[in-house]
Fold:
Amino acid sequence: MQQIKRIKLTLKRPNCRRTAIRVAACVGTLLFTINHGSALLDGSMTGDRWASAILTYIVPFMVSIHGQSSRAARTQAI
Structure:
């Protein structure tokens, strides 16, 4: 439960959100291109693929938030 509270606090910090958005944009775009680029170019993106594409951006965002939260917790513990 403590970790969830720290993640919520991290999400409230504008600088952490900005960092996570940049990470999600870079990593998400790379993964989107690898996983869905050909389907996008040949027009065969289905609803399921679009749902997967959205997750392609959400996952790196949340991983970045989690990493920033964990780093802050370790820094405060020292």
Notes: The chain has one domain: 15-77. Residues 46 and 56 are 15 Å apart (CA to CA). The longest helix spans residues 47-77. The two ends are 21 Å apart (CA to CA).
